[in-house]
Amino acid sequence: MVNNLGESNSVFNHFIAELRNADIQSDRLRFRRNLERLGEIFAYEISKTFEYAPREITTPLGVAEVQLMVEQPVLATILRAGLPLHQGMLNVFDKADNAFISAYRKYDKNEAFDIHIEYLSSPSLTDKILVLSDPMLATGASLVKAMKELLSCGKPKKVHVVSVLASIEGIEFVKRHLGRLDLTIWVGGIDDELTAQAYIVPGLGDAGDLAYGKKTE
Fold first, then answer.
1. Closest Cα to residue 154, out of 120, 186, 185?
2. What distance in Å separates the CA atoms of residue 201 and residue 89, rounded to the nearest whole number?
3. Of 37, 57, 82, 209, which one is least surrounded by beta carbons within 10 A?
4. The 3-state secondary structure of the chain, one letter per residue
5. Which residues on adjacent β-strands are paired with residue 107?
6. Whole-angstrom Cα distance, residue 71 to residue 214?
7. Res 111: pLDDT
8. How high is the pLDDT of residue 155?
């Protein structure tokens, strides 16, 4: 299942418009904050799919029955670009366990690249709800490799993948390689094109660089 939140008219699209806007992108604080706000909205929408149970809450004037989540998810992200989006979801799922993966593109002289995983920190994922976030789902290779690494920590009962922008190619790649999981993909927009360097067009550029500054290759 693919849920594209950008298809519905809401303030969500204003935040994505600012992320895409080259004139606004120069403000790194605003860029990171917009990713964080989108993470909060994604988390709210994902929370609607969870299991709930009634609980009595004592107020100063009596007792109220409310429906509360039965469990918190495990929030995972790919360093470094995923950190603001992850933080937004953590603002909502504030009791969640967390997982972090360090992955990067290793280019050769012909500008082809492989995905390298350097580091993984994760709790057990067995029978948990896993939410894996990465702002850009371009080819899908980084996300699939990160997910396979996470599965070494146990098989979750449900997986949610969150990306602000995705390509059609990236979504299809994820479906092909992770189809055996109970998987839902959440995106804010789907773009048609990828460049030869595997950047989404029109996209927004390099989310990691825009959030934290340019890096050496």
1. 120
2. 26
3. 57
4. CEEEHHHCCCCHHHHHHHHHCCCCCCCHHHHHHHHHHHHHHHHHHHHCCCCEEEEEEEECCEEEEEEEECCCCEEEEEECCCHHHHHHHHHHCCCCEEEEEEEEEEECCCCCEEEEEEEEECCCCCCCEEEEECCEECCCHHHHHHHHHHHHHCCCCEEEEEECEEEHHHHHHHHHHHCCCCEEEEECCEECEECCCCCEECCCCCHHHHHHCCCCC
5. 113
6. 38
7. 55
8. 95
Tokens for 53, please give them: 């149970």
Cβ atoms of residues 153 and 99 within 8 Å: yes
In this structure, CATH architecture of domain 2-50+70-212: 3-Layer(aba) Sandwich (3.40)
- Nearest-angstrom CA–CA distance, 191 and 213: 24
Could you count the other beta carbons within 10 Å of the beta carbon of residue 80?
17
Amino acid at 41: I
What does the alpha-carbon distance between residue 133 and residue 89 come to, in Å, rounded to a whole number? Answer: 9
